[in-house]
């Protein structure tokens, strides 16, 4: 079964309609499913308090922020996919009227219907809604086609007013078509009159019948209320001989009038004064009420079934259609002249001719002349070959227009007469004097031609001949000043030619050292210079710098491509998507963007007295000079996620526990003029600087506990920041361990526990070190004890040998030394440190005994430094003797010649240096290089322990003598 609205549309389409088509049309943007709409069938549009647009379609409702669409469906708790009306109330709730009779609303990022808001159950009518209105008390009034009127009170209760209301003891059948509010009363338009309710006492109502009015059922009636005139304007659909009409109801005087119309009108929207948009099944008409009939007015958007019209806060207009999506018209006064195949063959250059017509040249060289008054177009054949050409320059001289460019030559245009000179020649720029031309001839540089030279227009060789050449650099732009100076824009900057002299002015500003594309002189003498994709530099007539337009004031980032200076010395500048107005006052440039289009590429600009003419890839756009596009922008936080979970948006401060400190904010900036949007934000009011970003998502990970006040602003392409700052307050609570009493108690426990651990560890380590020291000392003593029996036994055998051989003198001397040595060993092993003097005496006795034992097989020498106080300098006991013994046994004994041992004592800054040197066979020959005797290892470990127990560093080194020498050196730092 078809829904009533669908049946109605079939009737409307069957009625049809006509609309005149003119050469010019409205300038608009058309948004369809390819741009993000869920469907091209769009019923309604509204703008919320934040400036976002909402569209009701047959595939859900979608929100538009100027650059992207977000669609919501029943999966988001929207009550139905088909939404034919959207209204916002004083609580900033967006109400959606669907076809299934189940109302829903949107607030703070969430949708509500009767399933999650029980107060809406009274409004689930299973009928087609015909009206919606909020009264001054905050009550919601809803009307349905067959079930009457329902009142949802602000406290959540409801009151029903059925279709049959008793009045004056009579039963009236009231089909309600529309609801509105006026002077704190609620008005309901019915089929035969008007019901009037007092919200303070809604059960008391009044019915006023309107003579001559009998309305038929229509679910899609669009009514415009003129409260100043107490008048309703709305269309009537009558499939009768009378046709369609525009109806007026004066609800102050309760009168009804109708104006016949040849079009199937669906609604109307006022523009200004007597001007209105009338939308119908054949497009939209810009109608002045003084015009006798709507059909005589200019119509646009042919073939579009326009279902609703909306005027936004930027004074732009939005038209929803049932077959072509949504149209956006920034102004009814901006027109567009389309050209066939304009995308493949755009309008490249545009020029105001001496006859005040507009000359348009397309990419392929085709010409068109447009009458600036009635916009009629006259096409005529172009003499330019269509392959690999480009028109760069169009200038006028009297009644003649000259055209040059790549492979264009010189085209002379007088009225309808066209002549070409030097065909296929490339001329980037031209300057016209009364009797001659100055041409840029590519690699041939600048060249002067007499006008008579045009008679040789077929002679390309003459064109490139060196005669007449005045400048040899390739030039991209030319300007002949009022002072008859020739200004050249080269790839290397600005050059002036005057009286045959060449001057370079590139040093005036760094920009002037780059490639220059255009130079023009205004009537006030100022010289405007366009630097390729960088800036515009303005000089006065004396070549002093006046001003620069670049990134700092919004031009550079949009790469200005052309400019035009009109009769009033106003400079109009176009970038790829923007139009600027610039003028010089008191040596300062006043600059402002007047128009932005993200969907059209601008190529060139000119102007007449009232309009700007823009050459684009979609034909020509005609823009009134007085037009000023509203470029206000606003920033909003549309969604917030905490630890990945979406949060309901609220104006109150959000309080979070300490572990919910990962926050993601989704931003949106409402701008219908540009997609080039920047954001800046602060997370605390005390922050002195803003952080700028191009992303619309802000991530804050692991935020510390505290109070945060997020502030967000948006900037449009003109560099204007939003007037109002969107703020969001969040408090992240401290965990319990951040409280002072918890911290104090924890510190006490930590200090006590740490002290206890350190104390126990210190005592345990002290005992371990002490035990280790004792073990080392015991091993050293054991080593000495182990050495003593061998030494004693060998020494006694030697003494016995001397007695047997009757060498009693030597035997007695050896016995005496032996007894002294034994006393020293017993004395030294009981001490940790001994004096150097005692150590030297001990070593002397030991070496003398060993020398006698080995039959004087080696010599020894003990040396001390003069500055060494041997009597008062202490070294570890029993440290040197093991190395001396090792030198004797392993170094001297295997030697076939007499050996030698030298022991040196010297003073260092932080201790004593002892060197034990022998000339023995060395560790390599002895095959004992890697073997370290146990006694030496014990000494090494003992020295390490002594180093740890004092500030001194005790260490030892064993060094092999380098060939051809032999032997070993032991270095001790004690």
UniProtKB/TrEMBL annotation:
Signal peptide: 1-23
Keywords recorded for this protein, A-Z: Membrane, Signal, Transmembrane, Transmembrane helix
Pfam families in the cross-refs: His_kinase (PF06580), Reg_prop (PF07494), Y_Y_Y (PF07495)
Domain Signal transduction histidine kinase internal region: 778-858
GO cellular component, one term: membrane
Two component regulator three Y domain boundaries: 673-733
The protein's name: Signal transduction histidine kinase internal region domain-containing protein
Organism encoding this protein: Pseudochryseolinea flava
Highest classification ranks of the organism: Bacteria, Pseudomonadati, Bacteroidota, Cytophagia, Cytophagales
């Amino acid at each position: 079964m078809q829904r009533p609205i669908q049946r109605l549309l079939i009737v409307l389409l069957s009625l049809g309609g006509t609309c005149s088509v003119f050469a010019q049309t409205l300038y608009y943007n058309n948004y369809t499913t390819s741009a993000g709409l869920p469907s091209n069938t769009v019923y309604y549009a509204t703008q919320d308090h934040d400036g976002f647009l909402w569209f009701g379609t047959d595939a859900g409702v979608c929100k538009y922020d100027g650059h992207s669409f977000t669609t919501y469906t029943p999966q988001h708790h929207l009550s139905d996919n088909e939404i034919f009306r959207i209204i916002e109330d004083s609580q900033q709730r967006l109400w959606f009227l669907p076809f299934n009779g189940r109302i829903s609303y949107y607030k703070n990022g969430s949708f509500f219907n009767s399933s999650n808001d029980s107060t809406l159950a009274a409004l689930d009518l299973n009928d087609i809604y015909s009206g919606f209105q909020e009264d001054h008390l905050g009550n919601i009034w809803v009307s349905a086609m067959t079930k009457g009127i329902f009142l949802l009170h602000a406290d959540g209760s409801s009151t029903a007013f059925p279709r049959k209301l008793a009045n004056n003891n009579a039963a009236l059948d009231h089909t309600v078509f529309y609801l509105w509010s006026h002077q704190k009363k609620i008005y309901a338009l019915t089929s035969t009159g008007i019901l009037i309710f007092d919200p303070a006492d809604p059960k008391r109502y009044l019915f006023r019948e309107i003579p001559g009015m009998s309305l038929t059922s229509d679910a899609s009636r669009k009514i415009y209320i003129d409260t100043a005139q107490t008048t309703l304007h709305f269309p009537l659909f009558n499939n009768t001989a009378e046709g369609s009409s525009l109806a007026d109801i004066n609800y102050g005087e309760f009168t009804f009038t109708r104006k016949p119309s040849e079009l199937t009108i669906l609604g109307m929207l006022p523009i200004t004064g007597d001007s209105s948009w009338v939308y119908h099944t054949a497009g939209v008409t810009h109608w002045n009420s003084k015009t006798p009939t709507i059909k005589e007015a200019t119509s646009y958007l042919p073939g579009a079934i326009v279902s609703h019209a909306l005027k936004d806060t930027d004074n732009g207009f939005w038209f929803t259609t049932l077959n072509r999506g949504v149209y956006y018209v920034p102004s009814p006064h901006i027109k567009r002249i389309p050209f066939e195949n304009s995308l493949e063959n755009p309008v490249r250059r545009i020029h105001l001719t001496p006859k005040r017509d507009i000359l348009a040249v397309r990419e392929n060289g085709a010409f068109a002349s447009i009458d600036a008054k009635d916009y009629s177009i006259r096409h005529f054949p172009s003499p330019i070959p269509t392959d690999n050409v480009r028109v760069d320059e169009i200038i006028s001289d009297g009644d003649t227009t000259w055209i040059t460019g790549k492979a264009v030559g010189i085209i002379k245009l007088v009225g309808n007469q066209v002549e070409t000179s030097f065909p296929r020649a490339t001329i980037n720029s031209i300057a016209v004097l009364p009797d001659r031309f100055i041409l840029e001839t590519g690699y041939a540089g600048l060249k002067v031609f007499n006008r008579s030279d045009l008679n040789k227009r077929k002679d390309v060789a003459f064109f490139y001949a060196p005669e007449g050449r005045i400048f040899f650099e390739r030039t991209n732009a030319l300007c002949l000043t009022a002072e008859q100076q020739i200004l050249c824009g080269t790839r290397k900057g600005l050059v002036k030619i005057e009286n045959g002299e060449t001057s370079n002015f590139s040093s005036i500003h760094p920009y002037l050292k780059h490639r220059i594309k255009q130079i023009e002189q205004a009537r006030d003498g100022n010289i405007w210079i366009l630097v390729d994709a960088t800036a515009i530099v303005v000089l006065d007539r004396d070549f002093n710098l006046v001003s620069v337009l670049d990134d700092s004031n919004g031009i550079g980032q949009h790469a200005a491509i052309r400019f035009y200076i009109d009769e009033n010395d106003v400079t109009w500048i176009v970038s790829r998507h923007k139009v600027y107005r610039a003028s010089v006052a008191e040596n300062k440039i006043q600059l402002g963007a007047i128009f932005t289009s993200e969907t059209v590429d601008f190529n060139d600009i000119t102007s007449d007295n009232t309009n700007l003419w823009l050459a684009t890839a979609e034909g020509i756009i005609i823009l009134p000079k007085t037009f000023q596009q509203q470029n206000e922008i606003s920033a909003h936080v549309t969604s917030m996620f905490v630890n990945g979970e979406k949060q309901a948006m609220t104006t109150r401060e959000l309080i979070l526990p300490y572990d919910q400190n990962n926050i993601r904010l989704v931003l949106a900036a409402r701008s219908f003029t540009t997609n080039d949007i920047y954001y800046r934000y602060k997370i605390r009011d005390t922050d002195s600087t803003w952080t700028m970003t191009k992303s619309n998502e802000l991530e804050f990970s692991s935020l510390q506990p505290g109070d945060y006040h997020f502030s967000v602003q948006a900037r449009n392409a003109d560099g204007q920041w939003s007037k109002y700052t969107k703020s969001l307050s969040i408090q992240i609570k401290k965990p319990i361990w951040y409280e002072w009493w918890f911290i104090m108690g924890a510190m006490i426990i930590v200090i006590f526990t740490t002290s206890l651990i350190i104390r126990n560890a210190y005592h345990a380590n002290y005992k371990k070190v002490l035990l280790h020291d004792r073990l080392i000392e015991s091993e050293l003593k054991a080593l000495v004890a182990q050495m003593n029996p061998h030494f004693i036994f060998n020494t006694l055998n030697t003494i016995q040998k001397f007695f047997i051989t009757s060498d009693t003198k030597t035997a007695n001397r050896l016995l005496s030394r032996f007894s002294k040595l034994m006393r020293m060993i017993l004395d030294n092993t009981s001490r940790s440190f001994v004096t150097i003097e005692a150590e030297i005496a001990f070593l002397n006795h030991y070496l003398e005994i060993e020398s006698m034992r080995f039959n004087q097989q080696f010599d020894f020498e003990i040396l001390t430094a003069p500055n060494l106080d041997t009597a008062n300098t202490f070294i570890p006991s029993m440290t040197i003797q093991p190395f001396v013994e090792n030198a004797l046994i392993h170094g001297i004994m295997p030697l076939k010649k007499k050996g030698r041992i030298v022991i040196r004592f010297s003073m260092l800054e932080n201790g004593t240096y002892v060197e034990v040197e022998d000339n023995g066979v060395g560790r390599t020959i002895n095959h004992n290089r890697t073997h370290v005797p146990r006694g030496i290892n014990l000494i090494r470990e003992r020295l390490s322990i002594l180093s740890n127990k004092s500030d001194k560093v005790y260490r030892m080194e064993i060094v092999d003598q380098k060939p051809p020498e032999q032997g070993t050196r032991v270095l001790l730092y004690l």
